[in-house]
Each structure stands twice: as C-alpha cells, then as structure tokens.
Amino acid sequence: MVLVLCAVGLGAKIALVPLHSWLPVAHPAAPAAVSAVLSALVIKASLVVLWRVWFQLAPGTPAAARVGTAVAALGAVAVVAGAVMALRRRRLKQIVAYSTVSQVGYLVLVLALAAPLDGVLDDAAVAGWSGGVTMAVAHGLAKAAMFLAAGTLALAYGSDRLEGLRGAVTRMPMTVAALAIAGVSLAGLPPTLGFVPKWQLLTSAVASDEWWWFLPLLVGGLLAFAYTAAMVRATFNVPGEPDVPRPAVAVGGVLTIVPFVLALLALVLGLAAAPLVEVLEAGFVGGAQ
Fold first, then answer.
1. What is the SS3 string spanning 89-123?
2. Where do transmembrane segments lie in this chain (predicted)?
C-alpha cells in the first residue's frame, strides 16, 4: 500500500497518465523560461524520488516488482497517448507540453526494466537503469530547447498557433533548427543523445525477454517524429507566395542562441555518450552491491 500511495502521489507530480491534466494547462500559460525549467528539472526531482523509493527503499521485493510493472504499464500508455494528443494540437506550446506527458512514460518504464530479476542484478537491469538516467538528461536538454524555441517564435510572431508561423524557417532559422534537433532527439533518432537511452531500453527489454515493451518504445518514437515534423513544416514558406511573412517583433541575441546551444548539446552528447553510459552502469552496479 505504501508503494501504491508513493506511485500515486509522485505520479501526479511528474504528470503520469492519467494524472497529467495539470501539465498541458500549466505550460501554455507559463512563460517559456518557466516551462523549460519545469519540464527539464522540476519534474525530474519527483522522478528521482520515485526511483529512489523503488531501487533503494524496496529493491527487488515482490511488492516493488508488481507495483513497478503496473506503473510501467501506465508509462507505456502515456508514451502513446501523450504523443497522439500532441499530434492533435495546433498550438506550439501545447504540442511540446503533451510531448512531455509522452516522454515521462519512458522514464517510468525504468521501474520494470531496471528491476533486478529474482533479486539478482543482471545485464537487463543495468541497461534499463543507464537508459532511464540518460533519457532524463536527453529529455531535459531537448525539452528546455523546445520550450525556449517555442517561446521565442510565439514572441516574434505574436502567437504560437502553427498557422501563424509561416516563413519562420527563413526568418528565424536558428530557432527552427533548435526545435527540429530537439524533436529528433525526443524521437530517439541517431546521432542525437535521445537515441542512446531508447537503444538501452530496447536492449534491456530484449535481455529480460520482455518483448512487449517494444511497442511503446517504437510507436512513441514514430509519433514523436510525426509531431516534430508537423511543427517544423508549419514554419515553411507557402509555395508560390512572393513574400515571406516577417515576424511582428524582431527577436535575436540570447533568445535565439540559448535554445540552439541546448539543442546542439543534445546532438554533441549523442556522439560522445559512451563514457556517460559506462559511468552510469558502473555506479548502478556499485550502488547495488
């Protein structure tokens, strides 16, 4: 019962389906910088508490295994449901907010994939743990970049509605590039950092013979690419249109550089992720001994 109550309370704080309804309302109403911090850092604090409850206070217990699998199943639902809801939205910040609902689902899959098998720490659990922590880092970078880029576009064009962003790829290429790179990382495509944890989680599912986790991992990636493509496509020029619409407000400097740098970090770290994974795996094994 204690584990169930912890899962419910912390699930609400990390916006896990079906306790997610506050997040898509909060993000569009908040300034872009606040949304970036909330999604990239604040949610992760509650996630760390959830992980510590499972892997330090009740490691390998039958109750932790049962409740962890149930919570992970909700995570699998969240991966797909959050991405589908993102695809149905026409406002940039709402799309990014619902993508957070989806990505949180991956982070709770760790409760099942990193759980020791019969109390024994095996390769599947190690891969699941390193995948979860790397996912938290990748998500933090990508989501901070996306919210800041979305806020910059909304400021420049006076609205974050997709139909009002026509021509932004020409007028604000760095901002759109940040949005695109961050979205590709969320989709788990190489060579971004987002690819590494998806691969680790898939490896864990294979090693533990829990093939059913493949479905949310693969479908979630495809849907993430789809809503990223929808956002980027909205910034293209209309074929045959003589004049590219100009932003209502001239935006530059820090507002364009910061999201681009964050997105670039998600790309660069993906090319040099091996040392990070090795450190995480060694730390998990050492902490369990």
1. CCEHHHHHHHHHHHHHHHHHHHHHHCCCECCECCH
2. 63-84, 96-117, 137-157, 169-191, 211-236, 248-274
Residues 173-182 pLDDT 10s: 999 999 999 9
pLDDT digits 0-9 by tens, 61-111? 777 778 888 999 999 999 999 999 999 999 999 999 999 999 999 999 988
- What average pLDDT values come out for the chain (289 residues) when binned by 10 residues? 83 87 84 82 86 77 81 94 94 92 92 71 79 90 93 90 88 93 94 92 87 91 96 84 70 88 92 75 56
Is the separation of the CB atoms in 194 and 142 below 8 Å?
Answer: yes
The pTM for the full model equals 0.89
Proportion of the chain in helix, strand, coil states, percent, rounded to 5:
75, 0, 20
Domain map of the chain by residue range? 2-288
| Residue 9, both tokens | 């309370």
Spell out the long-range contacts of 5-10 with Cβ–Cβ below 8 A and sequence spacing 24 or more. Answer: 6/50, 6/53, 7/50, 7/67, 7/70, 7/71, 10/46, 10/47, 10/49, 10/50, 10/53
- Verify cis geometry, omega within 30 degrees of 0, for the bond prior to 18: yes
Amino acid at 251: V
Q: CB 162: neighbour CB atoms within 10 A?
A: 17
